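Thread: Modeling a multi-component assembly for a lab meeting

Hi all, long-time lurker, first post. My supervisor asked me to bring a structural picture of a complex we are working on to next week's group meeting, and I have zero experience with this. I have the sequence lines for every component (587 residues in total). Could someone generate the structure of the whole assembly? Inputs are pasted exactly as I received them:
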Amino acid sequence: MRAYWALLRGQASSQFSYRASFAVDLVANVWSTALDVVTILVLFGVTRTLGGLDLHQALVITGMSACAFATGDMLIGNVERITLYVRTGRFDTVLVRPLRALPQLLLLDLPLRKLSRAVLGAGIYLFALGTAAIAWTPARVVLAVVAPAAGVVFFGAMFVITASVAFWWTESGEFGNAFTYGGRDFTSYPVSVYSGWFRNAFAYALGFAFVSYYPALALLGVPDPIGLPGWVGWCAPLIAVAATALAALIWRLGLRHYTSTGS
Amino acid sequence: MMAVVAARGLRKEFEVKVRAGRLRRTRRTVAAVDGVDITVERGEMVGYIGPNGAGKSTTLKMLTGVLTPSGGEVTVCGLSPVRQRTRLARRIGVVFGQRSQLWWDLPLAASFDLLRHVYRVPPAEHAARLRRCRSLLDLDAFLDTPVRQLSLGQRMRGELTSALLHGPEVLFLDEPTIGLDVVSKQAVRGFLAELGAGGDVTLMLTTHDLADIERLCRRLLVIDHGRVVHDGTIEALHARYGSRRRVVVELDEPLAVPPEVLGATLVGVTPLRIEYDLETATAGELLARLAGLALREVSIVEPDIEDVVARLYTRERAPVTDAP
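Re: Modeling a multi-component assembly
Sure thing. I ran the full set together rather than chain by chain. Output:
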C-alpha cells in the first residue's frame, strides 16, 4: 500500500509543479458537469415532466449519474491513457515494477484536476436528494450512498473494458468514448425517454439503466413506466460487481495479449 | 545451483497484417524469437547482439515478464517471469535505453526517493546504494534537476541508478548506451564494468555498439532472425567466422619475393611492407621464419569484431542449424 501511496505522491507533486495550469484545469473541469445540469433545466423549460418525473426527481438521476461518472472518471477514467502507453511502449516500464499494472497506470497519471468535477457532481446529487421530497427510510439512506458508489464502480469497469481494447487494437482512438462518455450522457436522463433498440442496448444489454435510473426510482418510490418491478433499483451493486468481473477478465486477457512495440 | 536465466525453446510470435490486394489484408504469423536457448549463471556478463529486428528486445521483454512467450520455458531467478512478475521485479533491474522509468517532472532525487517506496527498500540500504551510484556516476551536479531537463547522458546515468537502488541480482539493459556521447558512454561502461567486477550481479545487455561488448562482456550471444547463431567468447566468434590476426611487417630494404610461411597467408605485398593473416601459425612462429630479413617495425592487428558481426548478419539463413 505504501508503494502505491508513493506513486500518488509522485503524481501529485508532478501536477503541482505546474500550479497555474492545475488551477485552470480545476475550473475548466467544472463546465461539462455544470452543462449537464443546464441541459436538464432547459429541457424542463419546455416540458413539465420528463419520462414521468418532475424536475427535482429527474435531477436525482442527473446528480447520481454526474456524481458516479465524475468520480469514476477521476479515479479510473485515466485508464484510457493505456492507448498512449501501449503505442509508445511506456507500458513496458509499468510492467517491470513490482506493482500491479492497473493501479500503477491509474496512480501514475491520476488527474487530480478532475476533483472539482466530482465535488460538483456530489453537490448536485445532494441538492437533488434534498429537494425531491423523498420518503426516507433507513434502507433508502443506504441506497442513496451505495447506488452512486456502485455507479463509480460500474463506470470504472466500463473505462477498463473500453481501454483494454488497446491491447488488441492500438489505434482504437475515440472508440471507447461512445460507451463511457456516451454512457454518462445516457444515464443523465430517465431511461423512459429513450426507445427501441437503442434503449434496449444501452439500458439493459450494457447495463446503464442500473447506474442511476432504477436506483433513483427506488429512492423516489416511483414505479417504472417501462414496467420492471421496484426491486431492480436495489440491484445496482450486483450489476456493478458483474461489470467489474467482466472488466477484470478482459483486462487480464489483454495483458497476456500485450505485444509491446519495437525497441 | 540453478542458473539465473534459463530459457529453453523460447518463442514469440506476432501477427502482422500484410496487404493483399487493394483493400484486403491477410494475417501472417511471424516468429520474432524462434526457439532461443539461453543459460546465464550468476555473475556472468553477457552481451546480446543482433541486427535490427533480430529479436533482442523481444527476448529481454520475455525474460523480464513484459511479454508472454508464445512457446518454450523460461525462468529468471527461479521464477516464471509473467506469472510471478511482481516478485521477479524486486529481484531484477531493467533499463530500456529508449524509455524512461523516472518521473519526468520531478527532480532526479525525488524519483529515487519514490522508487525506495515502490520497491520497499530499507532506508539505510537505499542510502548506501545511492551514495555509491552518486560517486561512480557523478550524479551530484544534477540530482535536483527535473528529469525533463536532463541531457540524455545524465538521464541514462539516472536510469542506471534507478535500476540498481533495490539491489537487483540481475540487470537487464536494453541499449544502455544508445544515443550517448563518447564521454557518457565511457562513464556508463566504466560503471557497469565496476559493477560486474564484484561478481554478484548478473548482467545481460543488448547493444548496437560493439565497444560495449568488448569492454564488458566475456560472453557474447548473437541472435539473427529470432535464433541464436553464436554463443561463446568473442575469441570463439573470431575463430568460427575466420577472422584472423594480421601481422604487418615493415622492412628497411625492399624485398622482391616475400617468404611463404606455413600456417599464414600472404595478404599484402609492397616493396617495403608485407602483411600476413595468421591461420594456424602463431605470431612468434611467423617472426622466427622472417628473422633473416631486415625488419624495421612489426605490428599485430587484432581482428575487428564489427567486421565479423557484419559478416554474420549478412550471411544466408541456412547455416543457423549449427548454432550451439
